[in-house]
Design brief:
Elements: E1 6-12, E2 15-22, E3 29-33, H1 40-46, E4 65-69, H2 88-102, E5 108-113, H3 115-126, E6 131-137, H4 146-162, H5 165-174, H6 198-206, H7 213-217, E7 223-228, H8 236-245, E8 250-254, H9 257-260, H10 263-271
Parallel strand pairs: 3-4, 3-5, 5-6, 6-7, 7-8
Antiparallel strand pairs: 1-2, 2-4
């Protein structure tokens, strides 16, 4: 019998996080974290980064109780104008607090997309025993490729703070879309972040990076890495380095948007092993 998904706001570390809860309370918990400037609703609209299959009863081998949430400052979640709130180690503390809230006595499975992958990697390297399996999707720029992305985020933050409405609209239209998503008109639309928070959100993104090689090499959880091709903001190089660092990690590289849309089913199968 299908359990209807419910949405609510949960008070976590001084903010109200918008959360969708899908699956019976008796099931093991999986927590899904989205990408920068996205939200639960944005993911559903584009179906890119949609892991709802994990919380559906027809998921292979028995599904999980899927907790999807809007990161602080995104979607239906509240936030602040302090860039430090949006660096990945701080977002990781929100994820860990949600794990304690929904699964205080058992580890959870973690699912991340882009910023969510950065968040999850900081969470698992901070408190490894809170996780049993990891799905790291769309790993972002990191380490030596991060500096250029950070400068771009800083430029965008300045534009969000000081630009005119016309300049903002032109910048949105000019933003490059990876060729893999040329057939996904909903991909890369206007950020699902309040305009007053956008400068802080992007500055925080530019001030953060993945954990060190040494920290990531200490991950012992079974890990599935899902990457998409043709996107400098999410280079396959990062995914390949993660596979190299994490013992036994599996890597899938998708070349089409249709294959990216299979990630939810892939994750459900992986988590059920």
């Amino acid at each position: 019998m299908s359990i209807p998904a419910t949405s609510r706001r949960v008070d976590i570390r001084g903010v109200h996080l918008g959360v969708t809860d899908a699956g019976a309370e008796t099931l093991p918990v999986a927590i899904s974290a989205h990408g920068l400037s996205q939200s639960r609703a944005a993911v559903i609209r584009s179906s890119i980064g949609d892991f709802s299959a994990v919380g559906q009863p027809e998921a292979p081998g028995g599904h999980r109780r899927l907790i999807s949430y809007d990161a602080r400052g995104h979607g239906e979640s509240s936030g602040s104008t302090n860039p430090a709130d949006y660096v990945w180690p701080n977002l990781a503390l929100d994820l860990l607090a949600l794990a304690d809230y929904y699964s205080p006595n058992a580890p959870v499975s973690g699912i991340g997309t882009s910023m969510g992958t950065g968040t999850l990697l900081h969470a698992v390297t901070h408190l490894p025993n809170r996780f049993d399996r990891l799905v790291l999707s769309a790993p972002p720029t990191a380490w030596h490729t991060r500096a250029l992305q950070a400068r771009m985020y800083s430029t965008m933050a300045d534009l969000f703070e000081n630009g005119s409405a016309e300049e903002l609209e032109a910048a949105m239209k000019a933003a490059p879309i990876p060729s893999i998503f040329a057939d996904v008109p909903e991909f890369g639309l206007q950020p699902d972040v309040d305009l007053s928070l956008l400068p802080a959100v992007f500055r925080g993104a530019g001030q953060t990076d993945l954990p060190s090689f040494e920290a990531i090499a200490g991950i012992t959880q079974p890990t599935l890495i899902l990457a998409w091709a043709s996107d400098p903001g999410h280079p396959v190089e990062t995914a390949e380095k993660l596979r190299e660092l994490i013992p036994g990690a599996e890597l899938v590289v998708s070349e089409t948007s249709a294959d990216v849309r299979s990630w939810g089913r892939r994750a459900a199968t992986f988590l059920a092993r």
